[in-house]
Write a structure and sequence with these properties.
Elements: E1 7-11, H1 15-26, E2 31-35, H2 38-47, E3 52-56, H3 64-74, E4 80-85, H4 91-99, E5 103-106, H5 111-123, E6 137-138
Parallel strand pairs: 1-2, 1-3, 3-4, 4-5, 5-6
Length: 141
């Protein structure tokens, strides 16, 4: 029996960025759904289980904490979340990310770094344990 294809949800208001993310993630043989709003994302989550959610850290209609709370209601344990940040997060947002062991990458995202992170998250090189992973901030040089 072939392994089940992994499913990824990408949430960003930038259509061009979503197209690029779709291509990169599909190159890893994943099914990708793209949402431009948090409401669209919630509709997708109600219908599908996602292995990974990639989300813009600054969605216009809600902050990271609100998005995570809404995702948590429907997301199955083990779903990973990776935020992408066009601007440095506020101290409050950083504290939230740190407290909840969530990571983010700065935009523009370096292709190799993004693909490495994607592989780590999808291929399970991060052990699913109670161990604290901590926040990971990646500054592009």
């Amino acid at each position: 029996m072939a392994p089940k294809q992994q499913r990824v949800l990408a949430i960003d208001t930038d259509t061009a960025f979503l197209t690029a993310v779709r291509r990169m993630v599909e190159s890893r043989s994943c099914v990708v759904d793209c949402a431009r709003t948090a409401a669209q994302a919630q509709a997708y989550i109600a219908r599908h289980h996602y292995n990974l959610v990639l989300a813009d850290l600054a969605l216009p209609e809600m902050d990271a904490a609100t998005l995570c709370e809404r995702l948590a209601e429907a997301v199955v344990k083990g779903t990973r979340i990776l935020f992408l940040a066009a601007e440095p997060p506020s101290a409050e947002t950083r504290a939230y990310l740190e407290k909840n062991h969530l990571s983010y990458l700065d935009k523009p995202v370096h292709l190799r770094r993004f693909l490495d992170k994607l592989d780590d998250l999808l291929l399970g090189s991060y052990e699913e344990t109670e161990e604290v992973q901590g926040i990971e901030e990646t500054k592009e040089e």
